[in-house]
Each structure stands twice: as C-alpha cells, then as structure tokens.
Design goal:
64% of the residues lie in helices and 14% in strands. The chain is α+β, with helices and mostly antiparallel strands. The radius of gyration is 19 Å and the shape is globular.
Length: 173
C-alpha cells in the first residue's frame, strides 16, 4: 500500500464511517424503489385505496419537482432535475467525507442523498417521479409524495436542527 494511504490513521476510519452513511442512503433508495415498484404493479394510474379517513394510497406521476414545480416544462425538466440531483449527490458525498464524525449532520445528509437518488432513478427509468402517499382533510389535499420525499424532508429537518444546535454550542463558547 502506498505510504500516503497508510500514514494517516484517520483516513481509514473516515472511509469506514462514510461507508456506513452510504449504506443508510442505499437502504433508503432500495426501500423507496421497492415501494414504488409495488405500487406500480398493484395499482392503476390515479386509483385510490382508502387506508385512513385522512390518508389514501394512490398512484400518481410527477414530472416536476416538489409540489409539481415545473411539471409542465415540456420534458426538459426531467434532465434538469436529474442533473441537479447528480450535482447534489456529489456535493453531499464530499460533505459526508469531510464531516464523518458529525453524526446528526451525516444522518441528515444520508437522508437527503438517499431521497434525491431515489427520485432521480425514477426520472431516469420512467421520465417522472412515482408518488403514492396522499394525505387530505375534507376537500384539502396535500400533494402526493413517496418515501424518497420523506427521506429528503427528514434530512432537511435534521440539517436545520444540526445547524441550530451548532449555533447554540458556538454561542455558549
């Protein structure tokens, strides 16, 4: 092994920790894709299956981003959002590698990475994102979403929490 790789004992631990965070992201991608495959094979488009008085399973396709942003973009948005996800993935990988010891931050980044890759896979395979979780109250409907969206949202929440906690620690010092 080259001396440069063996001279830094923290480098091996950093790669090992990074592998753990990447495993979490991969599990999120697999769960997301498995649930989407189940819905695609079990339901017709726009079919609704009531689960709770405020929640249905439904099969919907989103060619846009969150809340169908740019959904009517004529198809170019597929590549735009896939490219954004690819760039975000590279940046998140770098961030994960340089901050492997910060557990809350890395958990947030792993969630965002897993979710972004899950939805990017949909765009590459189908040309749209598969959504199937629909919450509503009477005549009000929250836009349908999927497990990748949950991972991204939870990751973003953890990222905000990490920053708040970091700011409080810095303020106390």
């Amino acid at each position: 092994m080259p001396e440069a790789l063996t001279s830094d004992p923290t480098r091996g631990r950093r790669w090992q920790s990074l592998a753990g965070w990447l495993l979490i992201a991969a599990v999120l991608v697999l769960l997301d894709q498995a649930t989407k495959a189940w819905v695609l094979h079990s339901m017709a488009y726009a079919q609704r299956i009531p689960v709770l008085p405020v929640f249905d399973l439904t099969l919907l396709f989103n060619t846009g981003a969150a809340f169908s942003f740019l959904a009517d973009g004529g198809g170019a948005q597929r590549w735009l959002f896939t490219g954004i996800a690819a760039i975000a993935a590279v940046l998140i990988l770098r961030w994960l590698y340089t901050h492997t010891g910060q557990r809350l931050l890395c958990a947030a980044l792993a969630g965002i990475l897993g979710g972004a890759l899950g939805n990017a896979l949909d765009r590459l395979m189908h040309g749209h994102v598969v959504d199937f979780l629909l919450f509503y109250w009477r005549d009000w409907y929250f836009p349908a979403f999927n497990l990748a969206d949950i991972a991204i949202t939870c990751g973003a929440g953890l990222l905000i929490l990490d920053e708040i906690l970091r700011s409080r620690r810095a303020h106390r010092s």
